[in-house]
Amino acid sequence: MTDLLNLPWHEAKAQASGEELRAASLAAIDRLNPKLNAFLHVARNGGDGMPVAVKDNIVTTDMPTTCASRILGDFRSPFDATPVARLRANGCRIAGKTNLDEFAMGSSTEHSAFGPARNPWDPSRVPGGSSGGSAVAVAARMVPAALGSETGGSVRQPAALCGVVGLKPTYGRISRNGLVAFGSSVDQIGIITKTVRECADLLGMIAGHDPLDSTSAMNAVDDYTADLDAGVRGLRFGVVREAVAQLDGEVRANFDDALAVLRGGGAVIEEVSVPAIGYAIAIYYIIANAEASANLSRFDGIRYGHRSDRAKSLREVYFESRGEGFGDEVKRRIMLGTFALSSGYYDAYYGRAQAVRAKLRADFDAAFSRCDFLLTPTTPEPAFPIGAKTDDPLAMYLSDIFTAPANLVGIPAIAIPSGFSRDHLPLSLQIMSPHFAERALFRAANFFERETNYWREAPPA
Ligand code: GLN
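# glutamine complex -> structure
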């Protein structure tokens, strides 16, 4: 029955009933989840229809939302996040809630209070993060699609490390109503699927303005599948000079092979400069953590989840509940973010980071005046062993070096499988486009997928 889950969902739907799809998905989850730890909750009931997994920082009424944190305990939302409600309205079934780094802070899913998720290509390695559970669920063929969230790369990076397609849409394209906030000026819900067409379909279901999210865009929802087969002849792709200058070895060779595929389809490839891109990681970790320190102040031991029994006063309720409930990485982020916003340091850190962010945006605008798309690898290396970076936060933070710029600038970007490393671990190409050009992004990505077909190989698990 897992064969059904190897097919793009259009084909699966043509061959099987909703009941059969649900049974196949549940059987795959029961078989693989004990080993891969992708799901924190599995829906046994619920309707039939196309199963979609949802990262456990996006609220659903029928299952808990934990953000992989002890502080939320078994918190249950009284409402469905807008994208979840739209999925249900389109006949999808929420298959379960997936594992993540606590509050989406991380690049490996090792910072989960419920243990790490594992990479189906090699379970001794990380699946990436923070939407690691969602990427594993799709890569291991437990579900055809999953929602994740992005603040600095948390959909594209795990999609890359697990060999599946990951989209971060334009900031504001998908409602954030019901997404537990991390960095509000960079957060965006993203989509993980096996193929580009499934991703385009799913975006069409959930994109669009939502009066419940004041930052959601008014722009009309495009027909995202309209140009899938239009090819890349004459389209201009800019290779980001500053990013590829640092590449070597198999990631470089794989990236060059990807350029050759696009060139073969008649694309024009040229080098372009994005001078401020080298500052992206520094400014991302100031801005995201500053915003996180404010957003996470709502977890106070009073309104939601865990409350310490040791507390004897109101002040102690805050201190003890937060001390017991948050993990080390979350505490590190709150301290860094609070410091960056503190009186006397605000101008030096947060203010400056915002200024450089404006410069980065201007650099991207200039680059897009010369080309339709920008290219980099999605990640600087394939999946690393579990434990390799847990004692070195800076090394972990550098996993987002190619993904964080798109979040800071608000543009859409897609990660697409581009082959395998020597150890047969997935590698990935990142394509970025101007704001709201998702339709063009799918066109380019679908051309690449059709030429290469890497998605057809499922992991051994
Ligand atoms: N890895 C980055 C971080 O730790 C990005 C996380 C995300 O996109 N949610 O902040």
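# post-check
DSSP finds 16 helices and eleven strands in the chain.
Residues 347-368 form the longest helix (22 residues).
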